[in-house]
Amino acid sequence: MKKEFTANTVEEAKKLAAAEFGVDISKLIVTVVEEEKKGFLGIGRSDAKIVAEYEPSKAEIAADYIKEILKCMNIDAELDITENEDGAVIDIKGDTTGAVIGRRGETLDAIQYLASMTANRGDKEYYRISLDSCGYREKRKAILEELAKKIAKSVLRSGRTSTLEPMNPYERRIIHAAVSEIEGVTSKSIGEEPYRRVVISSVNGRPERKGNSQRRGNGKPRQKREPYSMDLMKTSFEKDYKKPKPEDSMFDGELYGKIDL
Fold first, then answer.
1. Is the pTM of this model over 0.90?
2. Any idea what the CATH number is for the domain that residue 114 is in?
3. How far apart are the first and last CA of the chain?
4. Residue 202 belongs to what H/E stretch?
5. Going by C-beta distance under 8 Å and a sequence separation of 6 or more, which residues neighbour residue 81?
6. Residue ranges making up the domain that contains 16
7. What pLDDT, in 10s, does the model give residues 1-22?
8. How many whole angstroms separate alpha carbon 52 and alpha carbon 245?
9. 187 and 228, same domain (yes or no)
10. What is d(CA 147, CA 145) in angstroms, rounded to the nearest whole number?
């Protein structure tokens, strides 16, 4: 963004530019077109003229986009931006951020994806945008780690392979990391996005049994086990949200960077 400003002095013109762009003067690129002239007894006096240019950072572009979304959702919240070497972490803080998070963080992930696409539009160098709200990511990570440990212990006892519900790459990575710390079990991902899921198996396989392994003691055939549902691990606010249709999913492998899980 570039614009010309005129004022009594160069400094006043800079202040006008900073107010116009809504940033600190230090973030402006200023070119002085004409210095102010005092003249003599008011004769020959002229104002200062500058051209101010401001290029917002990718973090600021993402933050502005998120603010517009929150405004459309009628959500009053503040954004806390922390930049690092890889990108920026934007934390949405407020009392009504449950709607921003959504069911299992799906709304938060969708906003993160769109903000990241907006910030990186037209630029080959990828800048990672991570979106959080009131510590949700850390809480979700703890829930997934507990889920992974619980299923891994069950697999160790029974020897049966357990399949989880579809997850995005970020959540699958948490599950894989937690399982890797437990001796005797292993994990892998199967399927295609957005239905890719984690399978946890015993390293030693299922214990052998005498007779027909497909029948129970009462002679009835075993029923096929359904994938482990994470509804048991819901947080309180997640119970208020309905499960979206598969075609509504907005996630792909680029949401959290290039992860092949």
1. no
2. 3.30.300.20
3. 41
4. strand 197-202
5. 59, 60, 63, 88, 89, 90, 91
6. 2-53
7. 788 888 888 888 888 888 888 8
8. 48
9. yes
10. 5
How do residues 167-225 score in pLDDT, each as one tens digit? 989 899 999 999 999 999 999 999 998 899 999 999 986 666 655 545 555 555 555 55
pLDDT tens digit sequence for 40-71: 666 777 888 888 888 888 999 999 999 999 99
When divided into structural domains, the chain yields a total of 3
Write out the two tokens for 113.
């994806």
The pLDDT of residue 129 is above 80: yes
Give the Cα separation of 138 and 245 in Å (integer). 26
Backbone angles phi, psi at 181, to 5 degrees: -90, 0
Is there a contact between 91 and 133 (Cβ–Cβ < 8 Å)?
Answer: yes
Q: Which amino acid, 252?
A: D
Is 126 a domain residue?
yes
Residue 246 burial (CB count, 10 A): 9
Dist CA 253 CA 173 (whole Å): 12
Specify the long-range contacts of residues 251-258, CB closer than 8 Å, at least 24 apart: 251/109, 251/110, 251/113, 251/168, 251/169, 251/193, 251/194, 252/193, 252/194, 253/169, 253/193, 255/109, 255/112, 255/113, 255/116, 255/168, 255/169, 255/170, 256/168, 256/169, 256/170, 256/173, 257/126, 257/128
Does residue 163 sit in helix, strand or coil?
Answer: strand
Q: Does 256 have pLDDT greater than 70?
A: no
111: in domain? yes
Domain presence at residue 250:
no
